[in-house]
Amino acid sequence: MAGIIRRLDETVVNRIAAGEVIQRPANAIKEMIENCLDARATNIQVTVKEGGLKLIQIQDNGTGIRKEDLEIVCERFTTSKLNKFEDLAAISTYGFRGEALASISHVAHVTITTKTSEGKCAYRANYCDGKLKAPPKPCAGNQGTQISVEDLFYNVSTRRKALKNPSEEYARIVEVVSRYAVHNSGKSFSVKKHGETVADVRTLANASTVDNIRAIFGNAVSRELIEVDIEEERLAFRLKGYISNANYSMKKCIFLLFINHRLVESNALKKVIETIYAAYLPKNTHPFLYLSLEIAPNNVDVNVHPTKHEVHFLHEDSIIEIVQKRIEEKLLGSNASRTYFTQVYAEKYYNNPLYFYRFIQSLFFKLHLFSILIIFYFCNFMEILSLSGLLETLDIDKPNQI
Ligand SMILES: Nc1ncnc2c1ncn2[C@@H]1O[C@H](COP(=O)(O)OP(=O)(O)OP(=O)(O)O)[C@@H](O)[C@H]1O
Ligand SMILES: [Mg+2]
C-alpha cells in the first residue's frame, strides 16, 4: 500500500536543512569566520566552551550589522551578498545563500551584539529558530560584531550524542581557525578555551604567511618550506603557497587547500601530491602543504556542497596535471640543492684532516669518560654487596679468614 504524502512542518524542514549545513561546531565556526572576513574584519577572536557544544563566541572588528537588519538576519535566505542568481558566477564573498546564521539559530541559541561605524551605540539581539525573540536592546560596544552560539544541537539529541568528545571537537575548531589564519596573513586570529588566558592559536596582524605557519605548525616545518608561485594564462589560474621540501616529513599529511580563498578539500589533488612526495620521503611519512589556487570565478561552481567544503571547476584534470608537474619541478630543484649542500658539507668537514683529527680526539675523550664511569659503578656495586652481607652468603673469601 502506498504511503500518504504529507507536507512537513516548517520547523522540521528548517531543522533538517540546518543539520546539513552545520554538522558539528567546527562548521559553525567556519561559517562565522567567513562572515567576519566578508565584513572586512582584521581581528577575529574565537572563544569556545566544551568543544563548542556549550558555547562558541566569535568577536570581530568588521562593518557590523545595521539595526534595521537585525530583525531578519537569522531568517533563511536573507543576505547582503547576492541579488540575482547570475551574480553567483562572479561572487567574491564567501557567503551567498543567507543560510548559515539561520541554520545555526535552528539548532542553537544565538545572541548577536553589533555596532556599525554610523551607529551611535551597539545593539544586542537574541534569536531562536530563525526569529528575533525581542526587539534589539541598545548597549555599549565597539565597532564590529560578536556572535554567541549556546547549546549547539540542544534540540537534535542524536547529533548531540554523536558529538560526545569535546576535545576532538575543539581540535577540529583549532584546525579551522589555524587554516584561515595562515591564509589570511595581515589579519589577526585567536582561538582559546573559555576561562583560559592563553590562546591555543594566535596570529598577529603584521605577521607573514611563513610567520603564521611557524606560529601554528612549528619551527621545524617553517624552516623547510619552498615557495610556490605559478601562473598559467591558458587555463586562467594562479597557484601560490608553501610546500615542505624533501628534508621534512611527518606521520600525517597536513594539506591546507584554498580555492578562490575558500577552504576546501580535493581528494584528486591530495592523491597526486602524495604520489609525488612518495618518491622523496621515507615510507609512511607525509609532507606539509599550503596551496592557494585562484581560478577565474566564472570557471568555478561554489554551490555544490551544503557545507561549501567542495567546489567544482572547469578544466580540473588539466589544472591538476599542471600543478603536479610544477610541484614535482620545485621539489626536484630543492632536492638537487640538498644533494649539493650535503656534498659541500662533506667536502668541507669530512675530507678536512683537521676535522678528522678533532673527531678522533673527541671519540677517545668520550671512551675515557665512559670507562671511568664503569669502574665507579662497579666499585659501588661491590660495596653494596658486602654491606648487605651478600658476600658471606655467596661464600666469598674475606682477607681476615685467611
Ligand atoms: N560578523 C558579521 N559582520 C557583519 N555582518 C554579518 C556578520 N555575520 C553575518 N552578517 C550579515 O548577516 C547576513 C547573513 O549571514 P549568513 O552567514 O547567514 O548568510 P551569508 O553569509 O549571506 O550566506 P551563507 O549562508 O552562504 O554564508 C550576511 O549576509 C551579513 O550581511
Ligand atoms: Mg555567511
From TrEMBL:
UniProt entry keywords in alphabetical sequence: Acetylation, ATP-binding, Cell cycle, Chromosome, DNA damage, DNA repair, Nucleotide-binding, Nucleus, Phosphoprotein
PROSITE patterns to which the protein is assigned, alphabetical: DNA_MISMATCH_REPAIR_1
Family annotation (Gene3D superfamilies): 3.30.230.10, Histidine kinase-like ATPase, C-terminal domain (3.30.565.10)
Gene Ontology BP term (one): mismatch repair
SUPFAM superfamilies: ATPase domain of HSP90 chaperone/DNA topoisomerase II/histidine kinase, Ribosomal protein S5 domain 2-like
Subcellular location: Chromosome; Nucleus
Gene Ontology MF annotations: ATP binding; ATP hydrolysis activity; ATP-dependent DNA damage sensor activity; mismatched DNA binding
Gene Ontology CC entries for this record: chromosome; MutLalpha complex; nuclear lumen
Domain DNA mismatch repair protein S5: 213-332
Lineage: superkingdom: Eukaryota
Major localization class: nucleus
Signal peptide interval: none
InterPro entries reported in the protein's UniProt record: DNA_mismatch_repair_CS, DNA_mismatch_S5_2-like, HATPase_C_sf, MutL/Mlh/PMS, MutL/Mlh/Pms-like, Ribosomal_Su5_D2-typ_SF, Ribsml_uS5_D2-typ_fold_subgr
Matching NCBIfam families: mutl
Family membership noted in the UniProt record: Belongs to the DNA mismatch repair MutL/HexB family.
Name of the protein: DNA mismatch repair protein MLH1
Gene (UniProt): MLH1
